[in-house]
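Batch job 17 of 40 flagged for manual review because the log was empty.
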Amino acid sequence: MSTIQISHLRKTYGSYAAVDDLSLEIPSGTVFGLLGPNGAGKTTTFKCMLDLANATAGTVLYDGKPLAPETFEHVAYVPERSVLYDWMSVAEHVEMNRRAYAKFDPARAAELLTAFSIDPRKKARALSKGMRTAVMVATAFARNADILILDEPTSGLDPVNQRHVLSLIINEAARGCTVVFSSHQIGQVERAAEKIAVIDKGRLVLEGAVDDLK
């Protein structure tokens, strides 16, 4: 599991194109930043990549193969909006992930939650937006996935925890993981990503290595 190939991806809602003829090649083991203002089509792109939304046209391939149920053992996703169950505690979310994914590491999850100062006994409903993001980041990173797809993974976090997430992203890539993350903050993408794509109104505006684009 490594390279992600997006070819001529298009997603329309009626006459509105949320993603419009987007093609990207994401090499294995890199941190790839998707940069653009809110509403640029970043979330829709991720949803189409994971079959959470049906693309109107185009293809997404993982190592030359389309997404299949077994692909999800290798791909971890942090959505922009919380998908935590309000009535469950943080510890129960960790346990649910442990049962669902073969490579999930509960000790790593506990270590990450401690780093974010999150009490695992707390119910999800008692967490702030930033803390919910931190729990989703912790459980995703504890999955030891080959590919991480992170939609605004610093959303709602204070500056210290934002830096912590960016460091985690860089460390995951160092161990060979492919990380794709979106942001509307250029400084974050510049700090963590090796390659970036700028999208606006669903279309690719600019793509290349961060050092070249600087």
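Reviewer: the log was empty due to a logging misconfiguration, but the result itself is present. The helical segments are 42-49, 90-100, 106-115, 129-141, 159-174, 186-192, 210-213. Unflagging and moving on to job 18.
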